[in-house]
């Protein structure tokens, strides 16, 4: 069925029953599985680029608007929840940029199979909200990682409940306050993982901080 094709996974993942995860098969996500949906709509966005290039004192960027930031966010979640399903949603231009990174041997931390490119002319937020709604109805524990006001407001109205996670890149770290609760840990700000490649530490810190 279409639903089965949509939910297929490349491999079976065993979960600890004490973590209420059970065993997942290629038939789709388990009831109770944690699903994280990352809003990468700002990556390659012409609107985002225009604001950053024309404003005399542009405000700090709090979006996944570079390949490096997307990788850092993905890695941080996977380090805390290695058995979670993490999906990144991009527009066409963002997907093209990320594909170029893959071809050059970078951004390998994000498996291509986890990246969703929305159809031309469509809005990333619409698809994130719809996938969140369906996954929540499937019994998954769903988290939407976004700082876009329109998406956050729509997520609040979903039933079953979907959790919103806001984030910041500051001083070389990614702060995800809600991730600590989702991951069962106590800290909410962690050092952004260093992606593969030859980026200098100073350059990475500056980009993550939005400077």
Describe the model.
The chain is an alpha/beta fold and 211 residues long. 36% of the residues lie in helices and 17% in strands. The strands form three sheets. Strands 5-4-3-6-7 form a five-stranded parallel beta sheet, with helices on both faces. Strand 8 (168-170) and strand 9 form a beta hairpin. Residues 1-27, 185-190 and 194-206 have low confidence and may be disordered.
Shape verdict: globular
Structural class: alpha/beta
Overall pLDDT level: 74
Rg, Å, rounded: 17 Å
Low-confidence stretches: 1-27, 185-190, 194-206
Number of helices: 8
In spatial order, strands of the major sheet run: 5-4-3-6-7
Helix content: 25-40%
Compressed to H and E, one letter per element, the order equals HEEEHHEHEHEHEEEHEH
Spatial separation of the terminal alpha carbons:
48 Å
Keywords:
five-stranded parallel beta sheet, alpha/beta
Give the topology, please.
Blueprint: H1 2-7, E1 13-14, E2 23-24, E3 34-39, H2 46-54, H3 67-80, E4 85-90, H4 92-103, E5 115-117, H5 124-137, E6 141-145, H6 149-156, E7 163-165, E8 168-170, E9 173-175, H7 179-183, E10 189-191, H8 201-208
Parallel strand pairs: 3-4, 3-6, 4-5, 6-7
Antiparallel strand pairs: 1-2, 8-9, 9-10
